[in-house]
Structure formats: C-alpha cells, structure tokens
C-alpha cells in the first residue's frame, strides 16, 4: 500500500539504534525527563480537545475505527495522529509518580497515523510513521530560553548521528503557517545530495494550550492560550508553584523528530564512493558505529578451519555484549565479496579468523572507513572495540 513501509533486517537494526540513541540522550542522560509508552488507539475526545477534529479534521487525516463494548455495540475510536496527546493525557500520572518540579519532560517513541492524500515513494510523507517526541514543561516566563536551548540540543544530537550541520536548514516558521497549538516553531530540514529538502524535526513552543485543553476547571489556571471548554476531563494539568499554593499550567516546548525521516537523512549522509589508486572504487556506508546495522563480521575463509569456527562463537558473544548489537559470522566465501558487502552495509570491522594465527590468539582486523588491515592480538581488539561502543 502506498505510504506504508516495511523494514528488512538492516533497516530494522538502524531504526532500533536510532531510537536507542534518542532515548539515551533525552531520558537516560537527563535527570528531569521521564519516559512513557502509550496506546495507539485514541478516544475521539482526546483528539477533539487537541484541536485535531472540527476544522482541522481533514487536514490531519484521522484514521477512524470502531471498538465493541460488552453488549457488542460499536463506538468510534481513532488511531493517534501524534504521540504528543498521549503524553499530555499522562501528565497527571507522571506528576503523581515522580513529583517533579519545573522544568521537567515526558518522552515517548511510537507510531502515529495520518490518512495522507499525497504520499511519497520513500519514507518521508507516510500514512504510518514513527515519532520521537519530548514534551518539556517550563514556566511561562522561560519559554523563549528553553526553546532556544532545545534547538541547540537537537542540532548537536543530529550531528552526533553523522549529519553534517551544513546540510541542516533551520526554518523559523512564519506566523500564518504555524500549527494551531504553536506560538513559535523551528523546523529542521535536511538537504539531500540532489538539493531537495525534507523536514526531520520540529521544535514547537506549544504554550499552555495542551495543559489547558485537557484540564477541567480551566478557570483556575489563568490560561494565555485559547482552548475549547472541557467538561469531560477530571484532570487539572498544573504544578503548584514552590512556596505558594498557586497553580501553574506549564508551557510545553516540544522537540518532535521523525524516526523514518531521520533514518533517510542518516543514509543519505553516510553513503560514499571511495576511489582507489588502481582506478577502481568502492561503495561504503560510513554510518556512525553506534547506528551500524552490523557491528562486526567474523569471516572464516576456510570452511574446514575447525579452530576458527569454534573460536568464532566465543568471540561473537563477547563482542555482542560489548556492542549491544548484531555480530555476524561468515564461513567460506570469497574475501573480496565479503569485504565489498560489509562495506556497503556499513559494518565497521571485518575480522578474519585463520587457524594458524588463532594458535597465537592473533586475528586480522580491517576497518571499514580506512580500508586498512592489521594483525593484532584478539584481546587488543576487544579493548579497541569496547572503546568505540562504550
């Protein structure tokens, strides 16, 4: 179906590692952000108070379905159009369990769905896609400061994933193109090698729109945003100001990145053709090691090399623990073809095992980016490997 994509063994690995890198930076490396995982099925009321129905219904292409009750009656239900609204819906739960003070954030990675009329033939404009979103709650008077902070943080993060900052374009979205919930948005676009661009992340100042929209007793919150009256919610999305009894409906700064689009940007950035002195060239995926779909290949040229085959399994498991990623064993096969394949899929290390050398615990290590091959003790390679993936 158009606008819906599957990922094979290599693409799935890159997506997993991209998600892990985001979660590490946004949740584990910070003391003020808490992760959640919310449902895909969404109450129409949640979309209504988020502003995704009514005048915006067609624009956001909400997928509708039905759910049964105990009497077999059908009620309307939606697939979520963004992960953000479930983060807001869980605001009270997070506050109750973590007792945060401002600023703090709620992070989530997950699928979202939009019934787009126009889709692309590669993963940019899709009907089913994956988002990495943070809702970072701040006092009203600090929104500009935190908006600029998160713009810098996110540019730095994309650079760490191997994206050249010269290929990222920051667009300060003009007022009449802003989303209904945003007072200011920075869009980060990636410039492809052919000059075309696509958005990989938006960083929006959502103000107190969402905390107000999903709260009951809105009159207690002194909202600055215009929101629909909410007579259904029993929540009061507010924080008590330290030292007082004053309730604050915090503003949300939202860095929202696309996993699929991010993966495409990483691939565009990583594919290179390297010319050799003999006039030949090789295609290399110079993807960052932490994103590589295969972390190392153990190649045993001689399929009858008993010691090498036995040792490969031991080496594989040790490397796999160090890298928390996929290590493959190739038995037999032409060395040039194995090397060519692993250059193209981005494997950082090709380790050749030969019985005559393993007797002395020596392996042959080839680096993807340099093409340099060297003999070294296996323990020395473990240290080198760990230094890259630790």
Task: Write a brief structural summary.
With 390 residues, the protein is an alpha+beta fold.
Core attributes:
BirA Bifunctional Protein, domain 2; Rossmann fold; elongated; alpha+beta; seven-stranded mixed β-sheet; 390 residues; single chain
Descriptive notes:
The protein is of the alpha+beta class and 390 residues long. It folds into 2 domains: 9-268, BirA Bifunctional Protein, domain 2 (2-Layer Sandwich); 292-389, Rossmann fold. The protein is 32% helix and 27% strand. The strands form 5 sheets. It has a 7-stranded mixed β-sheet, with helices on both faces. The two termini are 40 Å apart. The model has no long low-confidence stretch (mean pLDDT 89).
The helix/strand class is alpha+beta
CATH superfamily of the largest domain, by name, is: Bira Bifunctional Protein, Domain 2
Topology-level CATH name of the largest domain:
BirA Bifunctional Protein, domain 2
* End-to-end Cα distance: 40 Å
Question: Taking all residues together, what is the mean pLDDT?
Answer: 89
* Oligomer class: single chain
Considering DSSP H and I runs of 4 or more, what fraction of the residues is helical? 25-40%
Rounded to an integer in angstroms, the radius of gyration calculated over CA atoms is: 25 Å
Tally of discrete structural domains: 2
GO molecular function, one term: ATP binding
Organism: Pseudomonas fluorescens
InterPro entries: aa-tRNA-synt_IIb (IPR002314), aa-tRNA-synth_II (IPR006195), aa-tRNA-synth_II/BPL/LPL (IPR045864), Anticodon-bd (IPR004154), Anticodon-bd_dom_sf (IPR036621), Gly-tRNA_synthase/POLG2 (IPR027031)
Domain Aminoacyl-transfer RNA synthetases class-II family profile: 1-289
